[in-house]
Design goal:
It holds the Pfam family GWxTD_dom. The chain is built from 22 helices and eleven strands. The chain is α+β, with helices and mostly antiparallel strands.
Length: 639
């Protein structure tokens, strides 16, 4: 009987306790609902009331800490997370929250890592603790000279996070970033970005980086295949940007495979579907024209502008004998690239985009952190290319030396100087986790704390030029370096004379845009003659006959076969670059020499062919292209 009485009392005590705690649980639930609805001020009032009812509840303090984090009151957030941990040391979510809070407070990154490690003692299988620990390491890597050490530690933490939670919504992405910078192992990173999209198809940043790795490694086919697999599996769950990225990858692949006509069709379809405000970035001439051309363009009507643009691109067609304008296709690719990769700090792109659209990929690009007062040359990695290295060394010794400080400009706000949490709303505004476009960074010395600036050096060998771009204000916007105070008049004069902004302006005035078209083979010399006859229906019959010296065709000893064919194209254009008539033909087979000719042999052996087309009477410019299929030699002649 005594035992039964004791059990009854205990059970009764529990019931009474549950009844007295009921108001508290109602308050806690109401506070959670306000929080989930984004009503943080209402949540604060209700959760404070819950704490008044039960100040010993670790859950109440945890939710208050979480709510104050969203209100960006990090001191109060810290206070309540600590109280939650004091009430329940084994509650790992509180360690995660406190660690995230420390990452938002200046100079508390070490405290953040210590908090995460403490939480792992009680719950080593918690993936989020490993994940946040890894993020703290990656953030530190952007501020410290020993970045590879922190990156390696962060990588280990992310690997453990995905091992504990194979469906983690962001850990694979962070793990992939650890291979992007500073090791630049894009192949490995690409496969991990793909894995992140497999478990979280809505991850926009992972999709963007998957594309970027494909572009940086020029593995367009791999990028297309991976993205197609994701589209087949996840469909509309992928960001709408996936369609844009697929068009970009396919167009780049077609360009690489020299199928410029198909690439042009893709770009035309893509651009036609854009809003007028977006379409103008692809059609405006101001991004490639010189001052005189732009003056005429800006004064023209809309219809006149279209005609000016057509003539502008027509005059720059590197292969007029083909239907497509390869230079215009390349322009579309450059604009698309600039909008995607140089737009973090400024829309539609920052200063790097301006240069990229005009001149394309630099012959060498180096990305580095530069401390105020530090020698930029110490941050360069030798390229092994004598011309590139000579341009950089000459610049440093005799011309512009990159020097950085804030030049009196205001710094970015405090939020941009700390890590941005992926669960917060401002992540999209300042995506600090984008490793290739660092936000404001600083590194600590033993006695002083120096400011560090993310900088880039671009070298264009053809233009004998090195340009610098610096994220001077920590906003992700790269521009020419700001001027700094020089104590030497001579040094100040040199820095001003050869400043990157002035050098770029001089280049634009001299050469507004440039494009080195790859014709896909060595030059082919030939002799040709054009004869016109009166044709039917008031048309003119134009016949082109040409002869090719066989010594240019190689020999059968090269394994390319006994015969070859000549791919021939002829285009007639009027004075305004309008296509009037064109034809193409594959002529052959042509016998190839069995062996190389001896120097003692007299005479020149020729292979001849002809091609004809009809055109209306008039005066035209002609373009003739002949490619030998076996040797891939190509001859283009304009008349």
């Amino acid at each position: 009987i005594a035992v039964l009485l004791v059990m009854f009392c205990v059970a009764s005590g529990r019931v009474v306790s549950g009844q007295t705690a009921d108001p508290f649980h109602k308050l806690l639930e109401r506070g959670r609902q306000h929080f989930e609805n984004g009503e943080y001020n209402n949540a604060e009032a209700v959760l404070l009331e819950a704490v008044d009812v039960n100040s010993k509840s670790y859950e109440a303090h945890y939710w208050l800490g979480k709510n104050y984090y969203e209100l960006q009151d990090y001191r109060k957030s810290e206070k309540h997370y600590k109280e939650s941990i004091r009430r329940n040391k084994r509650f790992s979510d509180a360690y995660v929250g406190l660690g995230r809070t420390y990452m938002r407070i200046k100079n508390r990154m070490i405290d953040a890592r210590q908090t995460m490690k403490e939480g792992l003692k009680y719950d080593p299988t918690n993936a989020d603790v490993h994940y946040q620990l890894g993020r703290s390491y990656l953030e530190q890597s952007k501020r410290d000279p020993v970045a590879p050490f922190y990156v390696n530690q962060g990588r280990k933490a992310f690997q453990q996070a995905v091992a504990n939670d194979t469906q983690h919504p962001d850990a694979y992405y962070q793990l992939a970033l650890s291979y992007v910078f500073p090791s630049r192992d894009y192949n490995r990173a690409m496969s991990i970005f793909y894995k992140q999209l497999s478990v979280n198809p809505g991850h926009r940043d992972a999709l963007s980086h998957l594309g970027k790795c494909s572009f940086l490694t020029k593995q367009y086919r791999v990028g297309v295949d991976l993205l197609q697999q994701l589209m087949d599996t996840h469909g509309d769950a992928l960001p709408t940007y996936s369609k844009t990225l697929m068009a970009q990858l396919k167009a780049s692949l077609l360009q690489e495979e020299r199928e410029y006509d198909k690439a042009a069709e893709l770009y035309d379809e893509f651009i036609e579907g854009l809003d007028p405000a977006e379409k103008i970035f692809y059609t405006e001439l101001k991004y490639v024209a010189n001052e005189q051309e732009m003056a005429a363009y800006e004064q023209a009507t809309d219809s006149e502008k279209q005609e000016i643009a057509r003539k502008f691109w027509g005059s720059r067609d590197p292969d007029p004998a083909t239907v497509v304008n390869e230079r215009l296709v390349e322009h579309y690719r450059r604009v698309s690239h600039a909008k995607e990769y140089y737009s973090l700090g400024k829309k539609p792109w920052d200063r790097r985009g301006d240069i990229y659209i005009r001149y394309g990929e630099p012959d060498d690009l180096q990305h580095f952190l530069l401390r105020a007062g530090e020698k930029a040359l110490l941050n360069y990695q030798p390229t092994g290319n004598a011309r590139i290295d000579a341009i950089r060394e000459r610049n440093y010794l005799l011309r512009y030396r990159l020097k950085v400080d804030n030049a009196g400009a205001p710094w970015a706000n405090m939020t941009t100087r700390t890590i941005i949490d992926p669960e917060s709303d401002d992540r999209n505004n300042v995506p600090m986790t984008t490793q290739d476009i660092h936000s404001f960074s600083f590194r600590s010395g033993q006695e002083t704390q120096g400011l560090v600036f993310v900088s880039e050096s671009w070298v264009y060998v053809e233009h004998d030029l090195e340009l610098f771009f610096v994220d001077q204000l920590g906003t992700g916007k790269f521009d020419y370096p700001l001027g700094i105070h020089e104590t030497s008049i001579e040094e100040a004069s040199i820095q001003s004379r050869f400043h990157p902004q002035r050098a770029a302006e001089q280049l634009i005035n001299r050469t507004p845009e440039a494009y080195r078209f790859d014709y896909g083979g060595q030059p082919l010399d030939l002799l040709y003659d054009m004869v016109t006859y009166k044709g039917n229906n008031d048309q003119t019959l134009v016949e082109f006959a040409y002869s090719v010296p066989t010594l240019q065709l190689g020999t059968v000893e090269d394994g390319q076969g006994l015969n070859t064919w000549f791919d021939s194209h002829v285009v007639l254009r009027d004075q305004d670059y309008r296509r009037v008539a064109n034809t193409s033909s594959k002529l052959g087979p042509m016998e190839r020499p069995l062996a190389s000719r001896s120097d003692k042999e007299i005479g020149v052996d020729l292979r001849t062919a002809s091609i004809a087309l009809h055109a209306p009477p008039g005066e035209y410019n002609s373009a003739v292209e002949v490619r030998d299929e076996a040797s891939r030699r190509i001859g283009i002649f304009l008349q």
